[in-house]
Amino acid sequence: xxxxTFSSRADEKSLAFxxxxxxxGYGMSFGQYCGTVLLDVIERTGKLPQLDxxxxxxxxxxxxVIKGFSARVRHxxxxxxxxxxIRELIASRYE
Length: 95
Hints:
This protein is an all-alpha fold. The chain has four helices and no strands. It has helices at residues 12-26, 30-45, 57-72, 83-92. α1 (12-26) crosses α3.
């Protein structure tokens, strides 16, 4: 199978957040996620995944808090932490 390299410019903080989510959820970088998982979905469905315009406000607020937290914390290990470890880290900031 022939392959092709692709790239894009992105906001550093947004990319770091996406990379942390991809590492936690799939054990790979966001670039690897785009080149495998996302492209597989597009190939199988024949279309780009649709964004839910009616996304729950609480989810948006939670994502905003998490993005803000990821922007403040500059620790490479955060992307490899378990859910329990992340909860503990967040809780420790409010004690």
